[in-house]
Design brief:
Elements lengths: L1 E2 L4 H12 L13 H11 L4 E3 L4 H8 L8 E3 L22 E6 L9 E5 H15 L6 E4 L6 H12 L3 E4 L5 H11 L3 E4 L1 H9 L11 E4 L6 H11 L3 E6 L8 E3 L11 E2 L5 E4 L17 E6 L13 H7 E2 L2 E2 L3 E5 L5 E6 L4 E3 L2 E3 L1 H8 L5 E11 L3 E10 L5 H15 L10 E5 L12 H5 L5 E6 L4
């Protein structure tokens, strides 16, 4: 088990584990002692490696787990000990080389075991789908406890490229690394791309030719800003998961911003009835919204969750994996993600999807960021609520008034989809990899700068 910040030490330990036919289990450095204790008890590691940033949390967690493994500091592994006389036999394709734990934002973290075959297939798919040439230079800003971070590292190795490590994302440091090392490929979540734009330097990074994003939808507004700043040769939307690396690939983010595209090179997908218990055979008609189902026959796929038959029962049916994402197909056969089954807002008996409303509000000139969620309401059951970060230097109450006026006059949203409430917050909560934590907003875990009720009757 690897519990330390990213960068070269963590990458070296992960690769050493692969070479030694040992399963690598990198964990989120944001996990608290309770989550750590759960993961340690769940996967029974033989060793836990820590650094200065995680040693205390791991020590607290280990103290609560009977028969816990030994803990060693990463500094004690550098330059010490004797070299192995002979490496173990090479791992088999079906052996588990990696286990990633989901962030647990909606419950207990789930272990996702990944075979060597699945990891290699995902790296090959990544190179094909992003159009990366031999020798590409990638920024290692995504953490290695996340599938995107691991993929950037392994794809760089498979493609004879260069991986530029960063221990922890910092936008200014990232820009310096991009400029110093002539990085040409960025594979990041949308929130990190947004942060890079805020530095005001991204348009100076002339070496950057390929952009790819995953982990969350990107608003058309952000996509257009990136195209204007970078003018990339490739701009790819990679839609997938830890469980099955690729669902679909949107190969042209400049021409069709936000489009999730079509099935990846090793993938089969279907759009089926949105009911949570739907069968993979309940395929929806052309133009209808459905939930995505991906075939488990993909070489990029996992075989099931670690010690979680309950999660298997919810997400795997008849050889198909159901990630809980909703989409529609356009006239070209390309998919557009419209939301998640569990993010849907039932307001006044109507089903509304946050991403559609967010995309409309993202055009508002008075805000920097926006996330839409349903919050409890006596009349509506669940009220459409927009959580926004105002433009820098704008007084929150003034921003609130300006946003309300813009929504009514220029958003193009019908009354049903306009926010019943707008809340100006200091920041949008995100996970360690930059994914939006919508649940925290719904639960009231934020600092209110300005708030209003009943924007529309």
């Amino acid at each position: 088990m690897l519990m330390l910040q990213g960068g070269e030490p963590l990458a070296s330990l992960h690769l050493a584990a692969q070479k030694a036919a040992v399963t690598s289990v990198p964990l989120s450095t944001r996990f608290g002692s309770g989550e750590l204790a759960y993961c340690i008890a769940d996967c029974s590691p033989v060793l836990v490696v820590v650094d200065n940033t995680t040693a205390t949390a791991v020590s607290d967690a280990v103290a609560t787990v009977p028969g816990a493994p030994p803990v060693v500091h990463v500094d004690d592994l550098v330059g010490g000990g004797d070299a192995m006389g002979r490496l173990p036999a090479a791992p088999r394709e079906a052996d588990i080389g990696l286990m990633l734990y989901t962030s647990g934002t909606t419950g207990t973290p789930k272990g996702v075991p990944r075979s060597h075959r699945a990891e290699h297939s995902a790296a090959v798919a990544h190179l094909i789908q992003t159009g990366a040439p031999t020798g590409a230079v990638s920024l290692g800003a995504m953490p290695l406890f996340h599938t995107m971070g691991i993929r950037s590292l392994l794809a760089s190795i498979v493609g004879a490229g260069t991986w530029v490590p960063q221990a922890k994302f910092d936008a200014d440091e990232s820009m310096q690394l991009i400029l110093d090392h002539q990085v040409d490929t960025l594979y990041l979540v949308p929130t990190i791309f947004w942060s890079l734009l805020q530095t005001g330097q991204l348009d100076q990074a002339r070496s950057v030719r390929r952009l790819a994003y995953a982990g969350a939808p990107m608003t058309p507004t952000l996509a257009e800003q990136l195209v204007a700043a970078v003018q990339p040769d490739q701009f790819v939307n990679h839609f997938g998961s830890t469980e099955i690396y690729t669902f679909t690939i949107g190969p042209d983010g400049a021409r069709k911003p936000g489009c999730a595209g079509r099935a990846g090179v090793f993938t089969r997908i279907r759009l089926v009835d949105p009911d949570p218990q739907a069968s993979p055979d309940q395929i929806v008609g052309p133009g209808e919204q459905g939930q995505i189902a991906a075939s488990m026959e993909s070489p990029e796929a996992f075989a099931g969750y670690w010690n979680r038959p309950d999660a298997d029962a919810k997400s795997i049916r008849d050889g198909w994996y159901f990630p809980g994402d909703l989409a529609t197909a356009d006239e070209d056969g390309d998919l557009w993600i419209s939301g998640r089954v569990d993010d849907m807002i039932n307001s006044g008996g109507e089903n509304l999807y946050p991403e559609e409303i967010e995309n409309a509000l993202a055009r508002c000139p008075h805000l920097d960021q926006v996330i839409v969620a349903g919050t409890p309401h006596d009349k509506w059951g669940s009220a459409v609520t927009a959580f926004v970060v105002a433009r820098p230097g704008t007084e929150p109450r003034r921003a609130l008034d300006d946003i309300q006026t813009w929504v009514r006059a220029e958003s193009g949203l019908p009354s049903l989809k306009r926010p019943k409430r707008v809340v100006v917050v200091d920041e949008i909560p995100t996970s360690a990899v930059g994914k939006i934590l919508r649940r925290r907003l719904i639960e009231g875990d934020y600092e209110v700068l300005a708030d209003t009720e009943a924007m529309t009757p």
